[in-house]
Amino acid sequence: MKLWQKDFSIDKKIETFTVGKDRELDLQLAKYDIQGSLAHIKMLESIGLLTTEEWQQLDSALKRIYRKIEKGVFEIEAGVEDVHSQVELMLTEEMGDVGKKIHSGRSRNDQVLVDLRLFFRAEIQEVVEETEALFETLLQLSEQHKEVLMPGYTHLQVAMVSSFGLWFGGFAESLTDDLQLMQSVYKTINQNPLGSAAGYGSSFPLNRQMTTELLGFRELNYNVIHAQLGRGKTELLLSFGLAAIANTVGKLAMEVCLFCNQNYGFLKLPDELTTGSSIMPHKKNPDVFELIRAKCNKLQALPNEIISITGNLPSGYHRDFQLLKESVFPALAEVKDCLQIAAFVLQNIEVKPDMLADEKYNYLYSVEAVNQLVLKGMPFRDAYKTVGQQIETGAFEPPKTLQHTHEGSLGNLCNEQIRAKMQKILEGFPFEKVGEIIAELLK
User: Fold this and answer.
1) Cβ neighbours of residue 191 under 8 Å, at least 6 residues apart?
2) Active-site positions?
3) In this predicted model, what pLDDT tens digit does every residue of 277-334 receive, in sequence order?
4) Distance from C-alpha of 318 to C-alpha of 157, rounded to nearest angstrom
5) Which of 150, 192, 318, 394 could crosslink 217 through cysteines, CB 3.0-4.6 Å?
6) Residue 99 maps to which CATH number?
């Protein structure tokens, strides 16, 4: 069944090629197709396009289908093009002409737009929750190891004294930036395109504000062409949010791999969280973080992939958009997987203490020596030259008493302020309110 079916049969090769992976991927949209349809039929009843009895029949039938989806027994039958067609087929088989009325006042274009918005909204909630879990793990490790010093690097050369408190905490705070961006993405996605039909509106007296409220959207995509322009742009904005998280997690993964290397030896993974070699019996490899690194690199390429698919398209719907599902849906799963496994492994990681006792790290304290001379009244440039000469002549003695007090430094990590920053961002996501509205719709 196809919602656009005419009195002729399409060539099977063309059908297979054009349907692509839609039937498989649309299963992930099934719940959201029902939610959108529930709101749509309630609106149709309010404007007289459905009788109260017809609305009640459709409402009950849609909720029965929803329960099948939740139980995992819903499927898109062979020969049915997509989830929208499957739902309408099931309604029509059960209810006859009443089932056919569900599509009044909408197109597959705005139907898939609203399905995707609802799906992405729910997926973002899961991504945010997994990001928060990793954030808490990193901040806990920052507190736990705030007294453990480590080298800081610039140009991959030993630079200044750092600490694991700084290192873990730095990645934690970076995640707050990523969720700030994701919150902006969420706000853009959380607008209602339903009622835009094929991108040019409808001559039916649709109540678009009503469906906006029923589905928990914060507001409308008012202009119907703007709503249709959201296809592709929505995925692009979401990809930027996912890429930002991937940038943070990928960099963290790279440094874990580096610091587990024997030449660094700063970190150690428990044996059961490593993999081995087929010929080298001593090997204990951080494969999990290598895969996180690779997956995050892929995720950071996602915006370019979406731009490449959609960048030269004029306004209006084009079948090119179908391919975006194949890019974005797996990316959402991958970013959640990376966040989950990174948090799990980091909870079991071992940090090496007292590593700066090795004399090869003595020059880490050169800036401390310069600053001590400046505090005694010497001009900074003269102090810099003095310590430089000491290093050149072998007379440098590292002052290993550190005096770091400013916000965000070794002696003042500001972890509580960072946690408060994250909490404020999390409070900006209306997940609880949206959940209550959708629960009421499904009741």
Assistant:
1) 117, 217, 218, 219, 220, 221, 230
2) 155, 277
3) 667 777 788 899 999 999 999 999 999 999 999 989 999 999 899 999 999 999 999 9
4) 51
5) 192
6) 1.10.275.10
Nearest to 140 by CA among 418, 441, 428, 424: 418
Paired tokens of 187:
């706000």
Mean pLDDT over 18-45 rounds to 90
142 and 129 share one domain: yes
Domain that holds residue 327: 117-357+408-442
Question: What is the enclosing helix (H) or strand (E) of 163?
Answer: strand 157-163
Count up the domains in the chain and report the number: 3
Q: Sign (positive/negative) of CA torsion 17, 19, 24, 29?
A: positive
pLDDT tens-digit map of 107-166: 999 999 999 999 999 999 999 999 999 999 999 999 999 999 999 999 999 999 999 999
Kindly report which listed range (56-65, 194-203, 265-274) carries the lowest average pLDDT score. Answer: 265-274
The residue assigned the tokens 């274009």 is 109
CATH number, residue 290: 1.20.200.10
**SS3 state of residue 176:** helix
What's the start-to-end Cα distance of the chain, in Å? 30
Q: CA 55, CA 50: separation in Å to the nearest integer? A: 6
> H or E stretch including 102?
none
- The amino acid that residue 180 corresponds to is Q
**pLDDT tens digits for range 181-235:** 999 999 999 999 999 999 999 999 999 999 999 999 999 999 999 999 999 999 9
C-alpha span between 174 and 179 (Å, rounded): 9
Spatial separation of the C-alpha atoms in residues 164 and 209, rounded to whole Å: 51
3-state secondary structure of 267: strand
pTM over 0.85, yes/no: yes
